Amino acid sequence: METITVTQPVPDISGNAFLPPVALVPFRQDSHDSAHPVVTEGTRVKEGQLIARGTAPATSRIHAPVPGMIRSFKKISCPDGGTSTAAEILLSGSFDILGRKEENFSWKTSPESEIIRILEDKGVVSTFEEPVPLVELIRDAKKQKNPVILVRLFDLDPTCQLDSILFKEFPDKVVEGAALIAKALNIRSLYFVTDQDLDTGAITRAAEPMEAVILKTDTRYPSGNRKQLVKILPEAEQNRPGIFLDPSTAITAYEAVVHNKPVVYRYVFVSGPAVARTSILKVRIGTTLAALIQESGGFTSPPSRIITNGLITGTAVQDLSTPITKTTKSVHIMDKESCPDYTVHDCIHCGRCLQVCPVYIDPMELVEVIKNKKIRQKHIRSIESCQHCGCCTMVCPSRIPLHHILKNAREAGFREEDK
Predict the structure, then answer these.
(1) What does residue 237 show for φ and ψ, rounded to 5 degrees?
(2) Are 312 and 329 in contact (CB under 8 A)?
(3) For 170-179, what is each residue's pLDDT tens digit?
(4) Residue 73: which of 50, 95, 56, 51 has the closest Cα?
(5) Are 50 and 114 in contact (CB under 8 A)?
(6) What CATH number matches the domain at 107-258, 2.60.120.620, 3.30.479.30, 2.40.50.140, 3.40.50.11540?
(7) CA 38 → CA 14, 83, 120, distances in Å?
(8) pLDDT of 4 higher than 50
(9) Where in the chain is the domain with CATH 3.10.20.600?
(10) Do 126 and 256 contact (CB within 8 A), yes or no?
């Protein structure tokens, strides 16, 4: 498979984005059901105050990103293409976190249970692949024998770029965030996977008292998903249960535990030919795409598509009032030249999707059996092995969204059809 080269400009961290005068805070910010509000319309909330929690332990807690008054609860579009009820918070009042002296919690001498409690209380969500509450992963791993932690230091989708940049800018936070998660699991070593040469000594020092093992993978896409990363672990470790992390999650865990901060902001990479400035901003959750684009200089030309979380595996967003959530990493604003309108045609059976598939399944055959409801056990095994990397969709001359169809089928659940 050919190497994908990212040529767009890579900026430095631009700093804090403007505070949103109105924040739209969805109650669903992971792959589970929505959290339920613990406040009502007309309530005045403080910065960082808990405003929603799940009825089940698996749902992440939601906090107010800004102080103000909850004007209403309303249905909104989310960056992942779904919808959610959201709290509409009108900015007003003083801040309890912004501008205050940061706390410094000594996690190295704290019990495992206290670290887990803080991660749950602050609403930390893992964004390695599917967004799930981090404490859910930790608790599941603690039930297993000898779990491992693996930290991918680059992006799953190379067009996203955020994770690579965050590790470059904040390596100590990424490593320490991973180390405190290892402490919560009571394990002494963790693996860091990179696609480039690194200062291994700096990683080892930042990970203390944990042992850091640095592994290197190739730069060909896809090399960053769970199935690919497991293959580069030592053979004895490949069948062990584990937690997979990205720099975004590690930094969020670091901020939650060390500095006692709930998840109220995200670093977001804003780029694309239809926006004036490429930037990485520290954005309050609930900030709309319209406000984010305006801070990046606005549109330079009419956008053809706005895509969140990478051009290969991301999601097209239609509504500029869609807010930034805990799982938003990047926003690409494409123009008509770089992303022209297209029509989806019928399959011409060229075989390109089969040729590029890294796990050697036949995407078009699977799409056909899903469409015609002729799923058999062999198809189920193939659908479950799909990595949703998007390689098949990229080469399809008919522009069929193959990997999205397979992903939706898997998420919706499927069974062998009656013969």
Answers:
(1) -95, -10
(2) no
(3) 999 999 999 9
(4) 51
(5) no
(6) 3.40.50.11540
(7) 34, 20, 16
(8) no
(9) 13-97+262-335
(10) no
Amino acid of residue 214: I
Amino acid at 15: G
pTM higher than the cut 0.85: yes
Nearest to 148 by CA among 106, 105, 191: 191
- pLDDT tens for 397-408 read 999 989 888 888
pLDDT band at 237 (very low <50, low <70, confident <90, very high): confident
Q: Does domain 13-97+262-335 have CATH number 3.40.1190.20?
A: no
Q: Report whether 11 contacts 275 (CB < 8 A).
A: no
pLDDT range class, residue 55, cuts 50, 70, 90: confident
End-to-end CA gap in the chain: 37
Could you give the CA distance from residue 378 to residue 118 in angstroms, rounded to a whole number? 44
Which of 65-79, 130-144, 216-230 has the lowest average pLDDT?
Answer: 216-230
Contact 315, 332 (CB under 8 A): no
Please tell me the distance from the alpha carbon of residue 183 to that of residue 142, in angstroms, as a whole number.
Answer: 11
8 Å CB contact between 8 and 278: yes
